[in-house]
Design brief:
The chain is an alpha/beta fold. Helices cover about 35% and strands about 25% of the residues. α12 packs parallel to α13.
Length: about 450
């Protein structure tokens, strides 16, 4: 890398909203250090890969990307520098370097604030610079430099890590135990974002509704953020069923800015599978939680996660998952086939569901869910919603989301981005709506 030339960077993200928010922080750190964004890998001086380890497929993307970058180095970009961070970096550690990959900077989930320093160290020594210390302060990056990817919705990390011991999950190993950010810092960041024009914030955490700082629980945090003057919408993700209590259900009903949408992973509809997964609840308990929520918020929109092909899952147990999904009536589903992950307790079990059966079950699950969503969405045609316009789809076309997180495509000018408008739903598909725009709200 030529120190006299302008330095450019590219961040590539694999994973959830937590990874996206981490990438926004990385982009902010690099920008504050004199780097400028690059359009693609070919024009970047430094490419940073921010990784997810929750699924085997997500982890494999890292190694495919590294092979591609190594080829780029050998053919046309010998000065290209590469960094790896996120959950795969924390999970696989130094073994990533042992594969002979073109990695100059290797950082764990809590160390992204040191990326510019480590890059300079690598340039000076000609060797990879590594920091995988999970004891570092996960909240060290100043909120003021985060390069948010959207001008409408801003992610705000409320907590890091997870204290649950789900048998299939690597998050406790990659992110560590729960660390809760001071509420004052969270509120201050939200106030700053509102002052900069962001109408919506989403609080993030691996198990965000487990948040507790001293005597303040998650509902107390929601109340403080909801009270920020000028904030239009408040969301949060991801939640665990164990921490959905009466106070949280009441908050979804009572807080004026808190949107009627909840992502609540169930993973399976089988009690035996749930027990083996160490999820901490039963099918009946999960359904009681849903009933408690819908008693307060009858039109609450729900989405969930489900895993098919978990070790020992029978066809009957898979059908129990199908029946639970149909009975609840989720607005969205993120479904996956089980994949063994390093260091998890499920790794001790016999991964005995054939791949063909896993893929078939996944296909059935997704197809059924799409049909359920189509029917439910079609029942909403003719209703009017407030839509926060988020993006431009094309000339004269914009799109946004209702408070229930449903996507609505509209005809309208690009200057509507960031505004809340009224729209009547005219057509519905399984994943999005078409609407007719009416007068913007102020």
């Amino acid at each position: 890398m030529n120190a006299k030339a302008k330095k450019t960077f590219l961040v590539q993200t694999f994973g959830c909203q937590m990874n996206v928010n981490d990438s926004e922080r990385v982009a902010g750190i690099l920008g504050a250090s004199g780097f400028e964004p690059a359009e693609d890998e070919e024009s970047a001086d430094f490419v940073f890969l921010n990784t997810c380890a929750v699924r085997e497929k997500a982890a494999s993307k890292l190694h495919h990307s590294l092979a591609r970058l190594r080829h780029l180095q050998r053919t046309s970009r010998p000065d290209l520098r590469v960094g790896v961070g996120g959950c795969v970096a924390q999970l696989e550690g130094m073994s990533i370097l042992d594969r002979g990959q073109p990695v100059d900077v290797l950082v764990g989930t809590h160390n992204i604030g040191r990326i510019p320093e480590l890059l300079e160290q690598s340039l000076a020594t000609g060797a990879p610079a590594v920091d995988l210390d999970r004891r570092a302060d996960a909240f060290a990056v100043p909120a003021s430099i985060v390069a948010h990817g959207s001008t409408v919705r801003a992610y705000v990390t409320a907590m890091e890590g997870c204290n649950h011991v789900c048998s299939f999950c690597v998050v406790p190993r990659t992110r560590g135990p729960e660390t809760n950010r001071p509420p004052g810092a969270i509120v201050e960041e939200v106030e700053s974002l509102v002052a900069r024009g962001f109408p919506e914030v989403m609080l993030l955490g691996q198990t965000v509704n487990a948040y507790r700082r001293d005597d303040l629980d998650f509902t107390g945090l929601l109340e403080q953020v909801d009270a920020v003057a000028g904030l239009r919408r408040l969301r949060f993700t991801t939640s665990h069923p164990e921490h959905v209590d009466r106070r949280m259900a009441d908050a979804l009903r009572d807080l004026p800015r808190l949107c009627p949408y909840l992502h609540l992973p169930v993973q399976s509809g089988s009690d035996r599978v749930l027990a083996s997964m160490r999820r901490g609840y039963t099918r009946e308990g999960y359904l009681e939680t849903i009933a408690r929520l819908r008693e307060r918020v009858p039109d609450l929109a729900l989405s969930t996660d489900a895993i098919v092909g978990y070790p020992g899952e029978s066809e009957r147990e898979f059908e129990e998952t199908l029946s639970l999904l149909e009975g609840v009536g989720f607005d969205g589903l993120f479904a996956f086939t089980y994949s063994p992950r390093p260091g998890t307790t499920a790794l001790r079990l016999d991964d005995d569901v054939p791949t063909a059966d896993k893929q078939r079950r996944l296909k059935v699950l997704n197809e059924q869910q799409q049909e359920w969503q189509r029917r439910r969405n079609e029942s909403l045609v003719g209703r009017e919603y407030e839509v926060l316009v988020e993006s431009v789809d094309g000339e004269g076309r914009v799109s946004g989301r209702t408070p229930h997180f449903r996507i609505v495509h509209l005809e309208g000018p690009e200057n509507l981005v960031g505004q809340v408008v009224r729209a009547t739903i005219t057509r519905a598909g399984p994943n999005a709506f078409q609407g007719v725009l009416s007068q913007p709200l102020h």
